[in-house]
Model the fold of this input.
Amino acid sequence: MSQAITLLVGTMTGTADLVAQEVAEVLGSLGYSPRIQSMENAQAGIFGSGGVFLVISSTYGNGDVPDNAQALFAQLANERPDLTRTIYGVIALGDTTYKATFCQGGLKFDRLLTELGATRVGEPLLHNASSGDLAEDMACEWVRDWISGELAPAIAA
Ligand SMILES: Cc1cc2nc3c(=O)[nH]c(=O)nc-3n(C[C@H](O)[C@H](O)[C@H](O)COP(=O)(O)O)c2cc1C
Done:
């Protein structure tokens, strides 16, 4: 059976949704079984059975997660489930115009998941909306490296 990967999406204006759709296509073409899940409807229990997750989140406010990710983030922070069977990667969207809080939405999830015992594979992708590079293009390139360089050995271990 092919490895399932849940793409958890936190977004305000849809860029992270587009990234998730294109990344899911790449994952499917590489033989994985991607599932896109909006953070809006996600509960902390989604991590309960372990597995592989890709957190795709933009940044708003003062370095916060987007509105539709707030409830999930708060629930994880309050209930502090044991995520030691969870493997994850991070695609963080932001803009260097916001110097002090660049990509902190995705990076806040990264810190919290690590605190809860989950294992991150690979370095987070940090996309800068002011760079001129399309987030979905960078993410598709990143995920190919993530799969072949870091995720495959982590799953096999
Ligand atoms: C009101 C507003 C606040 C933002 N705050 C931040 C921020 O603090 N840090 C950051 O890196 N990017 C910030 N951004 C940039 C967005 O995270 C970035 O444009 C992202 O690609 C949007 O993705 P989305 O369409 O999935 O929400 C902000 C954008 C807006 C419109």
Summary: The longest helix spans residues 135-156.
